[in-house]
């Protein structure tokens, strides 16, 4: 096992996520393809290219323990290079993954990764979020909506209300100081749409950045 995958295996275990050999092979291929494509298109910043395991893989996997429903239908909004959706799909292969991304080149990379990793029940949606929510196609179709850092919470909660089936979860990965953003999100009309909020402080293993996972639930 190469050092990066050994680091990933140990870090995931600290998060409560067990990765088998086949899953580590998939992560290794994902990392290699990500670095190769990143020389041609801007998928991740150069400052994090040497920290893919901690800054991207483990950060994404921190949400895995909260996705407990088997075969959850999950949409990752504004997923970029596939974070957190693809790491979650590798770790939780029974979920049905939809990757919503506006950038054509990034969508090409996502399609390539889905094929390369033979990810079953995973697909891309190449569109702008504001276009999607004007239609009824995806309204209340998902058990889980997740977003890593694309939207501020006041903008994200209405999207959760659109995409989530009753009782579904909106999982957001944020930095440690998000109190002002959370207060802004839970005022006015948004408060009645998303009925519960849970906060979990995650100390990222193996020197990753501290994280706060905030989970909203749509009323049943």
Q: Within the largest sheet, what's the order of strands?
A: 3-2-1-4-5-7-6
CATH class: Alpha Beta
Query: What is the mean predicted local confidence, pLDDT?
Result: 90
Number of domains: 1
Helix-strand layout with pairing:
Elements: H1 3-14, H2 21-38, H3 52-61, E1 73-77, H4 85-91, E2 96-101, H5 104-116, E3 122-126, H6 129-132, E4 142-147, H7 153-163, E5 164-174, H8 179-185, E6 194-202, E7 211-218
Parallel strand pairs: 1-2, 1-4, 2-3, 4-5
Antiparallel strand pairs: 5-7, 6-7
Helix pairs in contact: 1-2, 1-3, 3-4, 7-8
Please give a structural write-up.
37% of the residues lie in helices and 23% in strands. With 220 residues, it is an alpha/beta fold. It starts with a helix and ends with a strand. It has one domain: Rossmann fold, CATH 3.40.50.150. The relative contact order is 0.14. It is globular, with a radius of gyration of 17 Å. The chain is built from eight helices and seven strands, in the order αααβαβαβαβαβαββ. It has a seven-stranded mixed beta sheet with strand order 3-2-1-4-5-7-6, sandwiched between helices. The model has no long low-confidence stretch (mean pLDDT 90). α1 (3-14) packs across α2 and α7 (153-163) crosses α8.
Keywords for this entry:
single chain, 220 residues, alpha/beta, Rossmann fold, 7-stranded mixed sheet, 7 strands, 37% helix, 23% strand, globular
């Amino acid at each position: 096992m190469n050092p990066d995958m050994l680091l990933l295996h140990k870090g995931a275990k600290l998060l409560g996520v067990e990765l088998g050999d086949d899953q580590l092979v998939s992560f290794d291929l994902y990392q290699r393809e990500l670095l190769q494509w990143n020389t041609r298109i801007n998928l991740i910043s150069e400052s994090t290219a040497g920290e893919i395991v901690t800054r991207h893989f483990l950060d994404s996997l921190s949400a895995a323990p909260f996705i407990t429903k088997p075969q959850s239908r999950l949409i990752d909004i504004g997923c970029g290079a596939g974070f957190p959706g693809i790491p979650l799909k590798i770790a939780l292969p029974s979920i049905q993954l939809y990757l919503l991304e506006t950038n054509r080149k990034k969508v090409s990379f996502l399609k390539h990764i889905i094929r390369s990793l033979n990810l079953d029940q995973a697909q891309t949606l190449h569109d702008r979020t504001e276009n999607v929510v004007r239609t009824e196609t995806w309204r209340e179709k998902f058990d889980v909506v997740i977003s890593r850092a694309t939207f501020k919470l006041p903008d994200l909660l209405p999207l959760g209300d659109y995409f989530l089936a009753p009782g579904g979860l909106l999982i957001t990965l944020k930095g440690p100081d998000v109190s002002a953003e959370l207060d802004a999100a839970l005022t006015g009309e948004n408060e009645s749409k998303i009925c519960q909020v849970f906060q979990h402080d995650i100390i990222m293993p193996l020197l990753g950045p501290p994280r706060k996972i905030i989970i909203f639930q749509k009323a049943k």
